[in-house]
C-alpha cells in the first residue's frame, strides 16, 4: 500500500525505512530494494537495534546506497 502511494504521489510523500542491522545482511538487501527500486528516500537508524559494541555506519553497511539516493531529515 505504501509503495503505491509513493508511486502515485512522488512529490507529496517520502518513504522512510528503518535500518535492520541483521547479522546475515538481509536488512541491507531490504533497504537497497526499498531505496533503489521502490523510491523510498529516507533511512532511520535506531542505535539500540545494533549489536552491542558495533557502531552505526551507513558507509560500511549500505555501500550500494549513494547519498544522493536518500534525503536528509
Automatic annotation (TrEMBL):
Annotated keywords: Decarboxylase, Hydrolase, Lyase
Coiled coil spans: none
Gene Ontology molecular function, alphabetical: carboxy-lyase activity; hydrolase activity
TM region positions: none
Amino-acid biosynthesis keyword on record: no
Family per record: Belongs to the metallo-dependent hydrolases superfamily.
Protein name stated in the entry: 4-sulfomuconolactone hydrolase
Organism: Gossypium australe
Amino acid at each position: 500500500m505504501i509503495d503505491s502511494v509513493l508511486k502515485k504521489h512522488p512529490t507529496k510523500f517520502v518513504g522512510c525505512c528503518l535500518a535492520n542491522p541483521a547479522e546475515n545482511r538481509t536488512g541491507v538487501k531490504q533497504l537497497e530494494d526499498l531505496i533503489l527500486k521502490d523510491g523510498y528516500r529516507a533511512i532511520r537508524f535506531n542505535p539500540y537495534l545494533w549489536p552491542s559494541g558495533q557502531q552505526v555506519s551507513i558507509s560500511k553497511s549500505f555501500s550500494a546506497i549513494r547519498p544522493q539516493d536518500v534525503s536528509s531529515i
